[in-house]
## 1
Amino acid sequence: MTNADPQELAKFGDLAHKWWDPESEFRPLHEINPLRLDWIDQLSAIRGKRVVDVGCGGGILAESMARRGADVLGIDLSERPLKVAQLHAMEAGVANLDYRSVSAENLAAEQPGQFDVVTCMEMLEHVPDPASVVKACTDMAKPGGWVFFSTINRNPKAYLFAILGAEYLLKMLPKGTHEFARFIQPAELARWCREAGLDMGQFKGMEYNPITRRYWLSGDTSVNYLLACRKPQST
Ligand code: SAH
């Protein structure tokens, strides 16, 4: 049994050809990428590090980490985004970058403790059993390695901003991109991380001003947020 929802994978597959169009449905991912990339790099200094990007999609984050000198493996279970990612890396001539269709759980079983940095961004809220992905991400990290997540909080404000605002009013995302019930409260994510054996690091909120189209990191985790954790040196 794979921990994946075929409808979710198909949703991303259907839009895959637009992944690298910065004005498409993927505009928000393009716009937030410099912010999250800098944050990940500041904390974990990715140059020369072995990184796995879980749920990499068309490769916006994975490719940008490889451009910074990391040795990156991107994994996803939706085939078309992976093909788009591969093609884009080839055309851009980015080295140190590979893509594979494999689940987080299977890669964790195959290569436990092999990665200095694990990133899993905007993916947990699309998965039937996110705690299992958190555990797999933890298992893939080396002792002392970093594990990063980002997702969307579950509360009335997040419903208003991430679904009504982004999908219906501003039409930044296609209707049905996100399902409210799958959103994740920071306390839930923190609990899964602790249960997986991670040391809790820092939460950051990610805020957006629709008029200036600017994103920034803050202490406000009420809608979009990120979490940085470390795997203890010895478990
Ligand atoms: N992490 C990327 C893409 C986010 S879009 C970024 O932030 O830029 C969400 C991605 O998660 C899609 O590519 C989708 O195919 C992938 N995904 C959804 N369920 C998955 C699963 N069970 N296993 C692996 N990838 C999954």
Note: Helices lie at 6-14, 27-44, 60-67, 79-92, 104-110, 130-140, 156-169, 186-196.
## 2
Amino acid sequence: MNVLGIDIGGSGIKGAPVDTLQGTLIKERLQIPTPSPATPNAVAETLAEIIRHFNWTGPIGCGLPTVIRSGIACTAANIDPSWIGTDVVKLLSTHSGLEVSVLNDADAAGLAEIHYGAGKNATGTTIVITAGTGLGTALFRESTLLPNTELGHLHLNGKIAEHLASAAVRTKLKLSYYDWARRFDDYLHRLEELFWPDLFIIGGAISKDHAQFFPHLTIKTRILPAELRNNAGIIGAAAAVRL
Ligand code: BGC
């Protein structure tokens, strides 16, 4: 089954048709800068542009950086606050005239890694972390997702973890990989002591540089870089339509 996967992020909205059996992109992805402000209607317009680009008439799966409960956005940590309370499924399906399903962006990336990427053969408990503008998390038991975990909002040394250890914080404070890894390591220790996972998978653009920070991590849990990198959000959002 082919599904148009959409990943709505803080700086870009990415989309591509996905073969959900293989977990691969069928066409080169299109990325459009996220409108500013990224209000629900402005994002629906960008989605329409992506639909036109691919001449798409089939189902759509969409990942959004908010908690999604029964199709409704409940939070807005790194996106316009006007999303809170928006019925995202209704908005995007009415606007596009197509069947749209929606989930949290980190849950989408996690599903992609568990089904087609670094977590393909994972057993037990896996936590997928996307380190980007925020810290997104997806928690799995075998391949079953517990959605909307929001573990990037745990408190760490009196602060919200994603304000200390996201990839955006590293860029903003111009931290070396070593200095950032110490913060990220504290965060992983926290997750380790709370969840005792069998595996961490680290995604987000920073995962391509894993060789520069994995050696500085002191956790005991097995850790792997994400395999699908920047396409995980698109692939997982599409796959979620048929899972
Ligand atoms: C949001 C999460 C999201 C993560 C990654 C956090 O700020 O609360 O819902 O998954 O950023 O985008």
Note: Helices lie at 40-54, 88-96, 105-116, 161-165, 167-172, 177-195, 210-213, 232-239.
